[in-house]
Amino acid sequence: MFYDFSQKKPALFLAPMADVTNPAFRFVAHQRGADFTYTEMIHSDGFNHGDPYAKNRGFSIDEIPYGIQIVGNSAESISKAAAGLENLFKPAAKVIDINMGCPSPPITKTGCGAALMARDFSAANHPASIVRSVCDAAMFPVTAKIRIYKDDEKTLRLAKSIENAGAAAITVHGRTRDQMYSGVANWEIAAKIKKELSIPVILNGDIVDEKSLQTAMDLTNCDGYMIGRGTIGNPFLFQKLNSYLKNGELETISMPDEFEARVSDLNQYLILLKRYDLLPHVNVRAHSQWFTKGLPYSRAMRLKINDLHNDVKIRSFSDEELTVEREALGFEILNIFNEYADKCRKEYCEQV
Asked: What CDD domains does the database record attribute to this sequence (predicted)?
């Protein structure tokens, strides 16, 4: 098994997210308490044809255990990529996860992600047959991340077929493909799947704070809980959730302290992006703006960040030029965060 689910504390997973869960972000999330993290989804066809994307984003900083998520449209392509990726990133990488739930049109129109779930159960490249093929080709445990159908029984049938195909665990995002990320995630179907399957079941969707985590735990009794959008720009969320799981109560932290924790995480994130040559692959301005979410003065900070380096005319920058430009941008962004963190601290002290 890729993770010890027998621990008393429910496992907290960082969801694989495109343009988010690069090695630097995964490291910061792990430092804040994420029990297990996943790469951005790596396209099997791209990897099999020599695309450097996987090599640039699929590694682990300090060899912290993690999972590799693959997206593809055929058993042959995904299996070949799985064998290559585990060889490239072992021993830190511990599991191959197959993306069967991404609803993004650029992904589904090529038959990947959630489009796999539209295939008939008897099809050669049905999700279960893909899992079986990857299990045969890979040395690592194989898991799958799915969405749900409108029909609960059909969702249960899919989950059981994936288990019978050899999957080590399954992650259930409680939305249909058509819902994208709108509406409310259906946790009840995950609870049904948990009762029916013998492999670990991980719940994904709408876990954003301590209250939603507790509700999800009470309703589903799943083995793990995967958090995605709530952690974007806020890996500190994992610390708060772990504190809640340990103590059974909300962590009492002042806004200035949380503000400074967010600044500390951003600072570490930018340092790691530079140290591991990730700056050319990351939109520093957008990523930094994510860290303002929920903070005092967030709008003012975003406006200031938007104004930085607007005179730079983006052309065909080399990786070296992008690194220099984005390192300078990151330094100025940190100054903005520190400015407003100090302001927040002063106002808080005056109120107290």
From this structure: DUS_like_FMN (cd02801)
Cα four-point dihedral sign 280, 293, 11, 270: positive
Crossing angle (nearest 10°) for helices 152-164 and 188-196: 40
Mean pLDDT of 202-206: 97
Write down the pTM of the prediction: 0.94
Active-site entry in 102, 112, 222, 344? 102
Q: For the chain, which domains are there?
A: 11-247 (3.20.20.70), 255-351 (no CATH)
Please name every residue paired with 203 in a beta bridge, in sequence order, or none if there are none: 172, 225
Q: pLDDT value at position 316?
A: 62
3-state secondary structure 197-256: CCCCEEEECCCCCHHHHHHHHHHHCCCEEEECHHHCCCCHHHHHHHHHHHHCCCCCCCHH
349 catalytic per annotation: no
CA nearest neighbour of 117 among 162, 75, 76, 147: 147
Token reading at 136:
């045969």
CA distance 282 to 318: 14
At residue 63, the pLDDT reads 86
36 contacts 3 by C-beta, under 8 angstroms: yes
Please write down the HEC assignment for all residues of 131-178: HHHHHHHCCCCEEEEECCCCCHHHHHHHHHHHHHCCCCEEEEECCCCC
